[in-house]
Design goal:
The complex is a heterodimer. By secondary structure, chain A is mostly helical. In chain A, about 80% of the residues lie in helices and about 0% in strands. The chains are: A mainly alpha, B mainly alpha.
Chain lengths: ~130, ~280
């Protein structure tokens, strides 16, 4: 499969992209398994589902920080397990961009190192802006 | 309705949404948000949060397929993502302050636009000359991939980078505000403006919506606006539906079905607009 447009450095980046994409699939699968476990815990073991209808319409703040999740896990709280699964899912694009940045460094493609770092900064900003507002 | 039943129905609806979306080449958000809000009466902000999470799932889940085929143009995607992510931050931030009825109105307009634009036929532009673009040259955005369907290596040049970036900011804002993947804006930008072959547009868009979705979802998450009992089943359902849809049925080119879907989109648009007007 010849590719006249890209050079050896680009091939290095591509190789990393291939590895990341497999990792992403694994990450998504794991995250959804955790979510399913959390849902099962909530409804079958804890019977916490009882107050769910009131939660759906609520504007309550759901557990959403690592600390919330950790304390919830210590209590074997099903909802915290679901949130953990969602956090793993949320992490997958972050990882993809971060690892791409490293790939561009190894390929010495400095323009794209910068571009990727800007995207990473925007991603990081989104985590913090939301927190301040909440 | 018991909570367990609610979760199950949400999950099954999401599977249908994911399957329908993958059949017709649209993302989950366009179907998921109206179904959750109109069908289940869920707060639109929770619906949007759940939709953004499901978009991450489909993007990360499908990535391998596109990357291995070398259809994803990572350079174009990453560059444009500067615009989309910035837009998504603005959109998600604004969503916290906007009266929900405007979100319904905007969503209705967006659905209407999507429906109408699906009716337009795509002209085959593969023979057209692609104008030069200095930025595209400098950043080496041009690409090449092997198209299995025609057994040919396809080289392509990229152009109109700056206008595309501008469109991407808007697409990102729509994503953060409405919880959609904005494929409906991204594909015209990449396809029409940048002249990417359609398969490359689709693959690159798949990469981008994951990052854009994560940007938006992170903000909803940090605000505590992600309801795990909605986002969880929705993400799982949409992903399973999309995978099943693409494997079992492939992409439907039947015109009647597309027209049926357009009618559905327009009906959905009317419903969302009505909800926005009624308040």
């Amino acid at each position: 499969m010849s590719d006249p447009v890209h050079n050896a450095a680009d091939e290095k980046v591509f190789a990393v992209e291939e590895s990341i994409s497999t990792l992403l699939r694994v990450g998504v699968t794991i995250s959804l398994i955790i979510v399913v476990i959390g849902l099962a815990l909530t409804f079958f073991r804890d019977g916490q589902g009882g107050d769910l209808p009131s939660r759906i319409g609520e504007t309550a703040v759901f557990p959403h920080t690592p600390r919330d999740v950790w304390t919830g896990l210590l209590r074997s709280d099903g909802q915290s397990v679901v949130v953990l699964g969602l956090m793993v899912l949320l992490a997958t694009p972050f990882m993809r961009v971060a690892i791409s940045a490293i790939a561009f460094v190894r390929a010495k493609d400095w323009a794209f190192v910068w571009i990727t770092l800007i995207v990473l900064t925007l991603l990081a900003t989104s985590l913090f802006i939301g927190a301040e507002h909440g | 309705m018991t909570p367990g039943l609610f979760i199950l129905i949400t999950f099954l609806s999401s599977v249908v949404a994911g399957g329908l979306g993958s059949l017709l080449g649209v993302g989950g958000g366009i179907i998921v948000v109206p179904v959750l809000t109109l069908g289940f009466g869920i707060d639109i902000k929770h619906a949007i949060g759940a939709s953004l999470v499901s978009i991450i799932a489909t993007s990360s889940g499908a990535a391998a397929g596109y990357v291995k085929e070398r259809m994803t143009n990572l350079r174009v995607g990453m560059l444009l993502e500067i615009g989309t992510a910035a837009g998504a931050i603005a959109g998600a931030y604004a969503a916290a302050f906007i009266n929900p009825k405007y979100l319904f109105l905007l969503f209705g307009v967006m659905l209407g636009y999507s429906g109408l634009s699906m009716l337009k036929k795509r002209r085959d532009r593969s023979g057209d000359v692609v104008p030069n673009d200095a930025l595209a040259d400098k950043l080496r955005l041009h690409g090449s991939f092997y198209d299995r369907s025609v057994s040919q290596q396809i080289d392509y040049r990229v152009t109109n980078v700056k206008p595309a970036l501008a469109i991407m900011v808007v697409a990102g804002a729509a994503s953060g505000l409405l919880g959609i993947g904005s494929g409906i804006l991204k594909v015209p930008a990449m396809d029409l403006a940048m002249r990417l072959p359609i398969k490359v547009s689709t693959a690159t868009s798949n990469f981008m919506i994951g990052v854009t979705g994560a940007t938006g979802a992170a903000m909803y998450f940090a605000r505590g606006d992600i309801n795990p009992f909605i986002a969880g089943p929705v993400a799982a359902g949409v992903l399973i539906g999309a995978v099943a849809g693409s494997k079992i049925l492939g992409k439907l080119k039947d015109n009647r079905i597309r027209v049926g879907f357009v009618v559905l989109l327009l009906w959905g648009s009317a419903q969302m607009l009505w909800k926005g007007v009624r308040g």
